[in-house]
Amino acid sequence: MLNENEDQDHSSAYKNKEDLQALPCAVEAQEVPNKAPLDHPSLFLNRELGWLDFNWRVLHQAMDRRMPLLERLRFIAITTSNLDEFVQKRVGGLKRQQAAGVFDLSPDGRTPDVQIELVQKEASKMLQKISKVWNLLLKQELENEASIAISSYDDLTSDQRETLNEYFDDHIYPTLTPLAVDPGHPFPFISNLSLSLAVKLKRPDRDGFNFARVKIPTNQPRWLPIESDTHAFHYVPTEEIIRQNIHKLFPGMTVKSSCVFRITRNADLRRNEEEAEDLLAMISEELRERRFAEVVRLEIEKNVDPKVLKLLKTELNLTDKDIVYIDGLLELSDFFDISDKNLPNLRFKKWNPVVPKALYHEGEAEDRKNIFDIIKSEDLLVHHPYESFSGSVRRLIEEAADDPDVLAIKQTLYRTSDDSPIVKALIRAAEKGKQVAVLVEVKARFDEASNIEWGKKLENAGVHVAYGLVGLKTHAKVALIVRREGDEHVTYCHIGTGNYHIHTAEIYTDLGLLTNDPDLGYDVTNLFHFLTGYAPDQQYRKLLVAPNKLRESFYELIENEMKIAKNGGNGRIIAKMNALDDVDLIQKLYAASRKGVKIDLIVRGHSRLRPQLEGYSENIRIISIIGRFLEHDRIYYFGNASNANIFIGSGDWRSRNLNKRVEALVPIMQETLKKRISRILNEALSDNRLAWDMHADGTYTLRYPDKEETTNNFQQEMMADSRNRAFS
């Protein structure tokens, strides 16, 4: 079922189907020696290069003319933003290893030095390709199909230039701070990911040149609107207006050249948590240091003056490999603003998440069932964003905050929104005298400052706040509510795959279980005792918890499928996750494949495992699904001779999730919910619109329906399914 303004058949714009499917490949698969053991480096792909290949699949959405035009522009912004984060974290981390003299090999047999060289080359190639997709494809299509133009100063009329020059004088000029570099003015601090102008100047009466840096102000819109007779929406980049008026900042000097540049700093600063007396203070100090961390990338216009480039390289301590030359605009993540334009025909048809039928109610009748009565009657499985987060999980927390019979609320917060109604409900509950305990993870990368601020607000309201565990990130997504019902204290739980974030719940696909199961209530209670107190040997009845026994549990489940296959049965594993890189678990999967277990893996991001590899993984298939929603849920299905074991939860099959994070996975027990999750997995595996097949060499091929074949778009099928279940 297709929405009227998406998946339009523009494939004729490509010469043939292969053009649509073609994609660069960053990973370099190695030849497998004869009879190589399961831990041989050739059996694993490089994680960093695999991540870049994932981002190539994201960028492909911007090139695919079957997508609505403004959504393609959004994918340009997403790809750029993804790459920024990758360079900060992954390139930064490799450089930190290099500086520390680390020579340990990655599972695929590469040193940090070799990986840096490969990653920088491929990341540079990707950034330049992003620029080409904008310059040669989307820029013109926006003008033709959306009447949106982004022009350079030189392309404007004299009247438009005069208007923008006046705007510069009145609004931009007073906010600029030119920073000279000379013996009396040291090279200025340049903030991470900010746009700047490098200005080469000359005094008329002196030899040599002077240098100044001008930061593009962030309190100005990136895209300045101008009146236009030719386009409905006409913009000029702010840096263009500053560049054209830069001489006004340096009277008495001659401007010889100016170019836009942008730096990326290392975000991989790690401290010894074991020696930290105060985890919160340690993270706060790390945030301060991150602002001044070493530069790991310089993006700069390709026409940069050689002397300016030499100065920047020296002052920023860069090599040639750290520099990416861009032909055109820098910082294309700012296209988010334009992609949000209210032009319905050029965007995905708006999706309004449906409230699950069990939770739906007309109006606000006083006699309507409260959410606790509903959950007590049956476990509820909610699937976001197809089903409403606000009408389910948020409702649970808000009703708990206001219910006089609720005695306590406990919850983990890994990431949450700036205007979080969840946090407001927790504060309200504490103010009403309920016991409220929250685990705020201050080590959630790039959310540290926000989480610290939320933690302080919660503490000020009387909430018991813990700030994570030494050596572990708390990544589990769990909430516990204790309610007085007659003479009993009854527990209600939410255990999910995604964060308590109202905005990402609209674009991330996640599953959550709302349950009154007393065993799960016992387990989640014990989990919070572990998180807030001292209970390293905590035991659990049903919940699978990392780093407690999650790895061992997965091994047992895989080995059970191997026994079934060995005995002539149908060994079966289906797993859906964000990424796959744990070497030991991959070896288990190779061994299971050799025993005849049929394994389907739905891995959105990178995979170290090589599927369909002769002698090792003929029975393993991997697909990656990329679409309008970000596939974020984790599902693990083990056939168990037609009595399937199914789990959902917060952890991927990654070493960090199994060893260095607190994760929680919940078994799905009710047959109706098992069937529903099985259908979700089968719909994903049959997708021929969003799915990419991974091959043994690490390359991916986009599935594309034949002319006679029905298009199966997994995400649209899930939309239709949620509507059908809500209104049937």
From TrEMBL:
It comes from Fodinibius halophilus. One of its GO terms (biological process) is polyphosphate biosynthetic process. Catalyzes the reversible transfer of the terminal phosphate of ATP to form a long-chain polyphosphate (polyP). Its EC number is 2.7.4.1. Residues 160-338 form the Polyphosphate kinase middle domain. Residues 44-145 form the Polyphosphate kinase N-terminal domain. The gene is ppk1. The active site is at residue 475. Residues 370-535, 543-711 form the Polyphosphate kinase C-terminal domain. GO terms for molecular function: ATP binding; metal ion binding; polyphosphate kinase activity. CDD domains: PLDc_PaPPK1_C1_like, PLDc_PaPPK1_C2_like. Mg(2+) binds at residues 415, 445. GO terms for cellular component: polyphosphate kinase complex. It catalyses: [phosphate](n) + ATP = [phosphate](n+1) + ADP. This is Polyphosphate kinase. An intermediate of this reaction is the autophosphorylated ppk in which a phosphate is covalently linked to a histidine residue through a N-P bond. Coiled coil: none annotated. NCBIfam families: poly_P_kin, PRK05443.1-1, PRK05443.1-2, PRK05443.2-2. The lineage of its organism: Bacteria, Pseudomonadati, Balneolota, Balneolia, Balneolales. Keywords: ATP-binding, Kinase, Magnesium, Metal-binding, Nucleotide-binding, Phosphoprotein, Transferase. Pfam families: PP_kinase (PF02503), PP_kinase_C (PF13090), PP_kinase_C_1 (PF17941), PP_kinase_N (PF13089). Belongs to the polyphosphate kinase 1 (PPK1) family. Its cofactor is Mg(2+). ATP binds at residues 82, 508, 604, 632.
